[in-house]
Inverse folding.
């Protein structure tokens, strides 16, 4: 009855005669006008065709962006659903299996909308930009045959994965189900990589340093060279990580809305936990994302300095200030959510004092990251500030300061997570209780960290210490490596906490040192320093996490997590995170297309349409906002539809409080 | 339902806040390449109309500094330039004055303004668009006297066709118009707008020089010649936005690399 009355109230407008007549008239005009306008155009060969009421570019922009948002959700969520299901299988904890199932249900109901937008996008591209698509399909024909097969494989496996959940739920059959999940992800990844090839080819039609077109504009490469173009791999990596983070954020928002509308404590507890997992996944994805972005940026510079300069110093340069602000919101939201979460754990109050310091580091990081280097100023303003750059801010607006800021923000976020994790824990467990296997795991971790951190320094050493900056790079790498080894020894001697602080301190020192030293060296050397900063942070993250796992494995719980005892504002933080992430995705969509400027295929096929210019950020922000609202409205609607068919008893929950370890274990 | 409404409003506020912020920061647009064709017999008013298109185009960039009906950001008001042009320099017609102001903008400076205008407009736009610009500026309060036929006659002393010529560094440096602004002692040229490049190779790497050519505002030099009150050149801050940003299009890859190599060897 309740469902029926909700449907009736939602569609009440249909029973309003005036509204109904207006709706029918608008629909009739639209259905009449669109085919009239499209079919009235010359049926012969055309470089471009137009739609009524909306420009071709905006139509393609909105359709592709909304499709990409759905696709990112559909590709990202199965990746962590599989991991969660595997954790449930290994631990025997049914809650994880139920959570993975709920994630998959969201993917299932979003699949058809993803496909519909994908089809609309394809039709519009072939209709409105026939020349461009003729060129692209001429190069990529074999992959365009494979693509639908991969899509079929993905959808088929998705249905199989979902509908076989009960049949393959026993311990003996679960590996088969996990295998299906793996297959689903393989199909999804292959699908994305194929589409990425088309997109990146338009940005960088070059492979292995060799242009794929001759001077007359003839394609001279192979299909594989076109696929394996200059920016394909960094783009694949960046998108995969971003999809996971985006999927986590959207799942977090779904859980937050369900939490806010929950009627029972059990429901609240369940969706609080689900929101926590969503946020956790979003943060895990967010941390390596800047590193993948640096790689993509480097490949773009290597392909074309002109394109690189357009991206970082040309008309798109202000986009990165906006991006910095959005990522700052994401970082601050994720941290704030963890800090609020610590309040529902008895024992979390021990770390409350650290929050203000973390907030200071994050705020300073945001301020530095969002500092423009080259502000647009009038001659009067320039006279007032005493030059083209602000005497203080000009120094902060360069990559040395920004790289330092972002690495310290990552370390601060990681520290927030570590403090959250140990909130309900008692004293660390003596290391000898974990046996030999723990020593082996720590040893292997140290080895991996040494190889990771040491590899660039090894190359520098091999080429010779011909200048001071080379000596500094090798020296700091050796120092950081020694600290990690010392950390392992201290952990074996039950001084794991000290080891963690030493490693984190060493990483922060390396980051700050290279940040300051970067001002006294040339640009190429300075850019190279970012590699050492990133590796110091990554190795600290890996080694401190592994040490932390053994420190508190089997430790006494001094306070269980009171799932469901979260204030409402925490759920709005999850929503803020997801909306900002979605907008960020839209912004990056604009960035990767705008860097091509007036080229369909960069420096090969010129855009001669009326939309050949690249619009301003303000205009782009309006289109992106429309995409974001459309995506959120559609995904909200289909989730609501999915929820309609859900019976109350299907929501699998535990009683409150759930006296179980935090889900990250 | 109340929660759903609250969440919807919250989402709209977030989206509006982000879009609002994006609209408040400087708005830059990347224009499509200019395809304006000026040829044939055009009346003065037709030429002036085309000139207005050029005037407003990002390629010419006039509106970055000038304005109509008010003082520009860095340059004088041009609302009545067609009338005042003839009075600026004794013995010089309005047409000749406006043309000179476009191709050699520092030959005469309006009182209260420095020599900031790029001296490479001729190379950037070519003679036809310069003529159209002259026609448009003449039409602002004056009579259009310029015509395309006049600029086609070499005897009139009109500029050579645009485009960067040459294969040696010295030829490219001159043809690209670098000499109009920069000083290079070894070449015996002295510019009074941009930074002195005589020892640029000892300050900047090849990559930084390349970046400065392709995207001059990415990093603006600290010191440029500036005229003081008595008209003497003294070191002062450089102004962003002066150097043309289209050298990526005007120079071939080989010319760019020749120029970069030449400049990096100036130590």
């Amino acid at each position: 009855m309740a469902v029926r009355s909700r449907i009736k109230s939602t569609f009440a407008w249909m029973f309003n005669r005036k509204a109904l007549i207006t709706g029918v008239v608008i629909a009739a005009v639209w259905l009449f006008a669109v085919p009239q306008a499209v079919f009235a155009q010359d049926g012969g060969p055309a470089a471009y065709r137009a739609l009524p009421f909306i420009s071709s570019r905006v139509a393609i922009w909105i359709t592709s962006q909304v499709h990409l948002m759905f696709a990112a959700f559909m590709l990202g969520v199965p990746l962590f659903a599989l991991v969660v299901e595997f954790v449930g299988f290994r631990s025997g904890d049914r809650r994880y299996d139920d959570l993975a199932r709920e994630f998959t249900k969201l993917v299932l109901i979003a699949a058809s909308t993803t496909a519909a937008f994908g089809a609309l996008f394809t039709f519009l591209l072939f209709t409105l930009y026939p020349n461009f698509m003729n060129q692209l399909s001429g190069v990529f024909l074999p992959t365009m045959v494979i693509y639908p097969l991969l899509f079929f494989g993905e959808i088929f496996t998705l249905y199989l994965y979902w509908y076989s959940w009960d049949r393959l739920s026993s311990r003996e059959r679960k590996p088969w189900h996990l295998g299906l999940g793996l297959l689903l992800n393989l199909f999804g990844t292959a699908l994305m990589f194929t589409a990425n090839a088309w997109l990146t080819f338009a940005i960088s039609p070059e492979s292995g340093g060799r242009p794929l077109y001759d001077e007359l504009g003839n394609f001279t490469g192979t299909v594989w060279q076109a696929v394996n173009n200059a920016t394909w791999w960094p783009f694949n990596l960046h998108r995969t990580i971003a999809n996971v983070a985006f999927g986590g954020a959207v799942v977090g928002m779904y859980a937050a809305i369900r939490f806010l509308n929950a009627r029972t404590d059990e429901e609240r507890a369940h969706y609080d936990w689900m929101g926590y997992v969503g946020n956790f996944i979003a943060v895990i994805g967010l941390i390596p994302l800047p590193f993948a972005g640096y790689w993509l940026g480097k490949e773009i510079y290597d392909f074309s300095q002109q394109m690189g300069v357009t991206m970082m110093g040309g008309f798109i340069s202000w986009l990165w200030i906006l991006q910095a602000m959005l990522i700052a919101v994401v970082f601050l939201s994720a941290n704030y959510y963890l800090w609020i979460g610590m309040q529902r754990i008895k024992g979390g109050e021990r770390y409350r004092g650290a929050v203000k310091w973390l907030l200071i580091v994050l705020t300073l990081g945001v301020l530095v990251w969002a500092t423009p280097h080259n502000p647009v100023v009038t001659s009067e303003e320039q006279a007032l500030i005493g030059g083209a750059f602000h005497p203080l801010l000009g120094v902060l607006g360069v990559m040395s300061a920004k790289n330092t800021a972002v690495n310290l923000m990552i370390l601060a976020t990681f520290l927030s997570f570590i403090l959250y994790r140990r909130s309900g824990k008692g004293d660390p467990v003596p290391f000898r209780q974990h046996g030999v296997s723990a020593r082996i795991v720590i040893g292997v971790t140290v080895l991996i960290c040494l190889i990771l951190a040491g590899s660039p320094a090894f190359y520098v050493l091999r080429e010779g210490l011909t200048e001071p900056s080379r000596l500094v790079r090798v020296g700091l790498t050796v120092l950081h490596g020694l600290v990690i080894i010392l950390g392992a020894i201290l952990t074996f001697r039950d001084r794991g906490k000290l080891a963690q602080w030493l490693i984190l301190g060493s990483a922060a020192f390396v980051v700050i040192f290279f940040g300051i030293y970067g001002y006294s060296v040339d640009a190429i050397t300075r850019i190279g320093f970012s590699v050492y900063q990133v590796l110091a942070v990554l190795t600290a993250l890996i080694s401190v996490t592994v040490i932390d796992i053994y420190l508190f494995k089997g430790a006494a719980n001094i306070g269980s997590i009171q799932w469901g005892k979260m204030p409402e504002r925490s759920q709005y933080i999850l929503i803020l995170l997801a909306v900002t992430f979605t907008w960020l995705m839209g912004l990056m969509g604009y960035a990767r297309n705008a860097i091509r400027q007036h080229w369909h295929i960069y420096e090969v096929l010129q855009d001669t349409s009326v939309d050949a210019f690249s619009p301003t950020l303000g205009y782009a922000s309006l289109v992106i906002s429309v995409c974001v609202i459309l995506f959120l409205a559609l995904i909200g609607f289909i989730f609501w539809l999915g929820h309609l068919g859900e019976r109350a008893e299907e929501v699998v929950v535990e009683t409150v409080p759930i006296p179980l370890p935090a889900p990250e274990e | 339902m109340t929660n759903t409404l609250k969440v919807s409003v919250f989402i709209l506020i977030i989206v509006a806040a982000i879009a609002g912020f994006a609209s408040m920061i400087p708005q830059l647009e990347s224009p499509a390449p200019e395809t304006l064709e000026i040829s044939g017999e055009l009346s003065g008013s037709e030429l002036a109309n085309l000139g207005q298109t050029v005037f407003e185009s990002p390629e010419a960039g006039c509106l970055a500094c000038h304005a109509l009906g008010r003082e520009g950001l860095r340059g004088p008001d041009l609302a009545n330039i067609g009338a005042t042009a003839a009075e600026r320099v004794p013995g010089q017609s309005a047409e000749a004055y406006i043309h000179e102001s476009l191709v050699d903008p520092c030959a005469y400076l309006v009182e209260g303004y420095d020599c900031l205008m790029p001296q490479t407009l001729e190379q950037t736009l070519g003679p036809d668009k310069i003529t159209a610009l002259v026609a448009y500026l003449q039409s602002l309060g004056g009579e259009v006297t310029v015509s395309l036929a006049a600029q086609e006659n070499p005897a009139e002393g009109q500029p050579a066709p645009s485009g960067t010529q040459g294969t040696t560094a010295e030829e490219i440096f001159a043809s690209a118009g670098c000499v109009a602004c920069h000083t290079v002692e070894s070449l015996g040229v002295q510019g009074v707008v941009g930074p002195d490049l005589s020892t640029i190779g000892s300050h900047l790497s090849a990559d930084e020089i390349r970046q400065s050519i392709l995207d001059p505002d990415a990093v603006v030099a600290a010191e440029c010649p500036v005229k003081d009150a008595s008209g003497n050149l003294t070191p002062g801050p450089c102004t962003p936005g002066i150097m043309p940003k289209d050298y990526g299009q005007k120079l071939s890859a080989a010319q760019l690399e020749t120029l970069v190599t030449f400049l990096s060897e100036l130590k």
In short: The two ends of chain B are 73 Å apart (CA to CA). The mean pLDDT of chain B is 77. Chain B has two domains: 44-150, 169-264.
